[in-house]
Q: What sequence folds into this?
């Protein structure tokens, strides 16, 4: 078999209509609450907020509270949230404390403290610290991140700055105080010890950050080990023992000189991680409480005194500030929308944040469900507007007009015109690149952006945002108004965006069928539609009339009503699922909607109700096809497959359900609740989270997201007849290597892979390509016959294939 070369190309995308004028590089906004401007004031006013850290798990090191000081005041009541940490959940509670005035020297001291501690926590390397500190005192001539993160002391009711901890950054420049003479109790021999810094008091080592220069490892010290020194025995893992002095000489080439000095107890420095990630508890290893015994003479003190509880708190701070910044920027967007749309409704800030957060952020929430609701309402509102405005347009023209209005390109243009794109969060938080306030070695520019009379933000460097991402955010914001306030508020937002829609009733004028009662069984449909009785029976005739039925008594086909009913049913079912299951995780509502609103389900509903017997048509071929599909349905399982694994169906059967919904909607005076009461019994049982069957592609995506193995790349063939885009997913990493699965469009395969005691279940249809690379061993399945052979082997070993 001729091999096909595969080249991963970051620039290849699936074909999509693209406006050449759209610039994918879009600004990202920073809330003005966290920004300041340079000045020469001797005293600076800050507003202080207490960040209380409340773990819901037991731990040996309790994190201490932190004070956040900002130049501008903001509403802290909306900023409570939780972080997913390895051992459980860490609750973050914020409250305003008071305003304080700090001298310029105190501000510089606080900045030096946070830059030093954060650089050590993030880099785990003392050598990188000097670069950050050397840039901290440079003259600043532009707007900059201006907030302070300071250790807190005292009660939560009346907290204050822990200046003792802040001044730990001055060590060893600070001279030894006479107070140290009495702080070590009566341990005369342990009062002073030798370190790389010189002779110091033991109390300076009990709560400090130290580095061992021979290996560059940084430790948090917690105590003095009075019963342990260089002559004590170290128990080896493989059995036996050796003195610490002999161990250090052999393992590190270090000669310990001060035999009688007590060792200090230390723990490895905490790792700064992204604690905003979803599903962390399933992937992240719980940190150990193991400690090490350190001879003081090999240690260099970096900061002292600083407790391990304070260090622990600041390891969470980048994630905390990232969430606070996100909530603040969402709050700015909320205030802009409420003012510009002239609304008084209360919208939770967290819902706005959800609407501007994409899946790429990999957090516990994202815009998918809200975008699903917004998309269905936008489609519904636009469809009914077009239906009543263009009463002479056929289904094709109406669909074309709707596509122009609700396309991703159109929504993106509206969103960019209103400068909403800058609010979007589409990147996973990386603590390594987090900007430390006060660290001016990190170059960046903040530019003031006046978005409205009440909304001022700052723009930083641009990032790439796809057209669809902006469109999804617009739909999600519509979904926020629908879920938290009302359709009226959603319409106000849509009008502000530029949509011309309303729900004013307009009489439907069209050629009317003569003697409709002779063409349809009105009693049958009244019973079928939950006792709904048509005021205008000609609408029912129109809903059942196929284009092949050319009769003077029935001049109009069902297509226009199907166009309207499709949108009405979509919105009604989406809102029903949302209201019935209000606490669904992000994305599950979309799956439920996809499984409920599709031709498969509608066609099966039509067959079960016997609607195929009442369709008005004039095609013998259509009649044969209908009878064949009905016979096939009766012979197959009666259980609902919820839209993705049934036999092919005739679209007209599904269209009839939608056209009936459209007819009832018009006949009832645009009352969608009447539509749902009439149609819902036909659709039951509706899908639930318990009965939902995910499509194979979605099932794979969920698995990869859960295991954090997702990586998307566009792929193209070279030197082959077929040219198309692929989706590359790094699915599983085991001891021998990485499994790579390439999916042609949405075609995937179904088999059970077992290797190294790891099992993965996938699903398949049509052609696929699998590449399994273990060093020089490469396996490829490049055609249908090979994939069928793969399917026959439930246990697959690439080396024996």
A:
């Amino acid at each position: 078999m001729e091999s096909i070369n595969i080249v991963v190309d970051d620039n290849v995308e699936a074909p999509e209509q693209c406006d050449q004028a759209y610039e994918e590089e879009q600004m990202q906004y920073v809330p003005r609450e966290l920004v300041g401007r340079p000045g020469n004031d001797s005293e600076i006013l800050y507003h202080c907020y207490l960040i209380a850290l409340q773990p819901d798990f037991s731990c040996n090191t309790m994190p201490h509270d932190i004070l956040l000081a900002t130049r501008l005041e903001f509403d802290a009541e909306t900023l409570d949230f939780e972080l997913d940490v390895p051992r459980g959940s860490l609750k973050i509670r914020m409250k305003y404390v008071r305003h304080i005035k700090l001298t310029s020297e105190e501000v510089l001291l606080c900045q030096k403290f946070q830059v030093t501690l954060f650089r050590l926590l993030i880099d785990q390397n003392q050598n990188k610290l000097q670069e950050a500190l050397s840039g901290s005192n440079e003259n600043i001539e532009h707007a900059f991140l201006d907030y302070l993160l300071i250790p807190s002391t005292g009660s939560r009711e009346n907290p204050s700055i822990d200046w003792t901890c802040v001044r730990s950054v001055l060590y060893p420049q600070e001279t030894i105080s006479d107070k140290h003479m009495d702080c070590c109790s009566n341990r005369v021999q342990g009062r002073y010890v030798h370190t790389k810094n010189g002779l110091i008091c033991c109390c300076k080592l009990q709560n400090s950050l130290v580095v061992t220069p021979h290996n560059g490892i940084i430790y948090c010290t917690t105590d003095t080990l009075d019963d342990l020194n260089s002559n004590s025995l170290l128990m080896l893992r493989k059995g036996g023992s050796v003195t610490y002095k002999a161990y250090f000489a052999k393992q590190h080439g270090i000669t310990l000189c001060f035999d009688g000095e007590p060792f200090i107890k230390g723990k490895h420095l905490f790792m700064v991680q992204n604690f905003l990630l979803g599903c962390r508890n399933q992937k992240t290893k719980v940190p150990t409480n193991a400690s090490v015994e350190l001879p003081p003479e090999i240690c260099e003190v970096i900061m002292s005194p600083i407790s391990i509880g304070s260090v622990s708190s600041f390891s969470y701070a980048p994630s905390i500030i990232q969430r606070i910044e996100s909530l603040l920027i969402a709050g700015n967007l909320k205030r802009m929308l409420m003012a510009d749309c002239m609304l008084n409704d209360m919208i939770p800030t967290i819902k706005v944040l959800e609407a501007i957060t994409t899946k790429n952020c990999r957090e516990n929430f994202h815009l998918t469900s809200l975008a699903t609701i917004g998309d269905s309402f936008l489609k519904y509102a636009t469809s009914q507007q077009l239906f009543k405005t263009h009463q002479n347009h056929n289904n094709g023209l109406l669909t074309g007009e709707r596509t122009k209005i609700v396309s991703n390109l159109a929504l993106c243009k509206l969103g960019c015109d209103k400068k909403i794109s800058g609010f979007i969060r589409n990147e996973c938080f990386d603590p390594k690149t987090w900007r430390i306030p006060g660290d001016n070695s990190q170059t960046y520019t903040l530019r003031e952006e006046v978005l409205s009379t009440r909304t001022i933000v700052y723009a930083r460097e641009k990032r790439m945002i796809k057209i669809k991402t902006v469109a999804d955010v617009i739909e999600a914001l519509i979904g926020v108004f629908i879920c938290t306030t009302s359709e009226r508020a959603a319409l106000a937002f849509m009008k502000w965006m530029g949509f011309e829609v309303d729900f004013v009733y307009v009489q439907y004028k069209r050629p009317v069928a003569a003697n409709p009662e002779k063409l349809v069984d009105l009693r049958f449909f009244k019973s079928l539609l939950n006792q709904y009785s048509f005021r205008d029976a000609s609408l029912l005739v129109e809903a059942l009339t196929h284009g092949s039925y050319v009769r003077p008594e029935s001049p109009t086909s069902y297509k226009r009503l199907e166009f309207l009913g499709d949108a009405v049913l979509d919105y009604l079912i989406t809102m029903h699922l949302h209201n019935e299951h209000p606490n669904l995780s992000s994305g599950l509502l979309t799956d439920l909607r996809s499984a409920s609103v599709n031709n498969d389900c509608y066609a099966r509903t039509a067959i079960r109700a016997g609607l195929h017997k009442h369709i008005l048509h004039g095609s013998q071929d259509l009649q044969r096809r209908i009878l064949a599909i009905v016979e096939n349905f009766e012979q197959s399982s009666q259980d609902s497959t919820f839209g993705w694994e049934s036999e092919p169906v005739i679209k007209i059967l599904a269209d009839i359900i939608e056209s009936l919904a459209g007819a009832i909607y018009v006949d009832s005076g645009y009352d969608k609740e009447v539509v749902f009461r009439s149609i819902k019994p036909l659709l039951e049982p509706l899908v639930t989270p318990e009965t939902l069957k995910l499509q194979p592609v979605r099932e794979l995506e969920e698995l990869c997201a859960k295991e954090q193995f997702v990586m998307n790349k566009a792929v193209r063939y070279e030197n082959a007849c077929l040219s198309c885009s692929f989706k590359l997913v790094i699915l599983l990493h085991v001891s021998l290597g990485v499994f790579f699965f390439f999916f042609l469009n949405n075609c995937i395969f179904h088999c059970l892979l077992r290797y190294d005691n790891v099992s993965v279940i996938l699903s398949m249809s049509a052609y696929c390509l699998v590449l399994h690379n273990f060093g020089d061993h490469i396996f490829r399945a490049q055609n249908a016959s090979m994939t069928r052979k793969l399917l026959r082997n439930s246990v697959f070993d690439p080396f024996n294939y």
